[in-house]
Amino acid sequence: MGRSTMLLTAIRKSTPKSASFIDWQRFAMAHSPEIRPAVRVGLGLGIPGSVLLATGRTDLLAYAVFGSIVGMYGRAPHRRQRLKNQLLGAAMMLCAGICGIAMAPLGLHGWVLLAGGMFWSAFSSVIADRYGIKPGGAFFPLFAFGALGTLPVGELPAVDGLIAFVATALFSVLLGQADRFEAMGERRRGATAIPWPAILRRARTYLLVIFLAGAVGILLHVEHLQWILAGAAVPLAAGNARGRLRRGAHRLAGTLAGIGALLGISYLAPSEPVIGCLIILLMFPTEAYMARNYGLALSFFTPLIILMLQLANPKIGSQLVWDCAMGNLLGVVVGIAAAAVVERRPSTTKGQRGRIAEIEQQHEPR
């Protein structure tokens, strides 16, 4: 009896430790960086970015950064599917970004900026839902339009920026095809497509939420309206209220952490070439954690974005940091609240809503 009691006691003591170890392993796997996709995306910006640094055109890094985001759409393990996803992602990014570049000489702001943001958010939402590409949602095309459309240019569009943008995007697609691929193996069952009524309802939600967030920003005379529009779009990638709250919280926490890191970088007063190198290096951890820990990824992505915009327009200075923080806060709050009101009466079944949440799960941000 004594030996049996000792054995049972040993089992009881060891079981929690084993379970705890397994839980720790699962947590570590869920939040560990993904190296191969990060290397592809990092090279997608690193090689064109190094050319810009070598030629002294650090002001064009903003265009290259948005072009390299096309690499984030290249996570599919099979060649044909990855090519399809990246071409669709490139089409969304290039169309929205080129539109912003073309409109930049007009001084894109206010209601015009809001109208363009509404269109590209709804358009990107439809494409992402229809083809199930990831990152889902409309954040990246919307932000590309707003950020590139508000950069200061002369009376004509920035042709050199356009070349950097398009060339980096195409280079990212080529890098995606140069990687090793998994064997096709057994044919996988095709994913159930989201019905068109649900796709259109999702696009309608983007239209209304972006409009409300932008209108609030305009009425409050927010200078950099694109931050509010981007902040409002982030929670919409989730398929339910709980997911939106979680994603919005990640957005705010990651943004604040990124601003803290940015303040530390600014204190060191690095030169423009050093800032350019930091922008390139920050893209690697951004992609490495985007699918595993959205908040942590944003802590790298936020200083990357602000630094590249400051290189493109040195006059904005510290005002951009304040607008980034307040714009994200306002956008996330309005986005979550407005989405809850707009989708109060869902017309789809619970299973369909679950499918939407799965396909629209951001890589990102997301």
UniProtKB/TrEMBL annotation:
Keywords: Membrane, Transmembrane, Transmembrane helix. Residues 212-340 form the Integral membrane bound transporter domain. It comes from the Bacteria. GO terms for cellular component: membrane. The chain crosses the membrane at residues 87-104, 110-128, 135-153, 159-178, 199-219, 255-282, 294-313, 320-342. InterPro entries: Memb_transporter_dom (IPR049453). It holds the Pfam family FUSC_2. It is a multi-pass membrane protein. It is found in: Membrane. This is FUSC family protein. It comes from Glutamicibacter halophytocola.
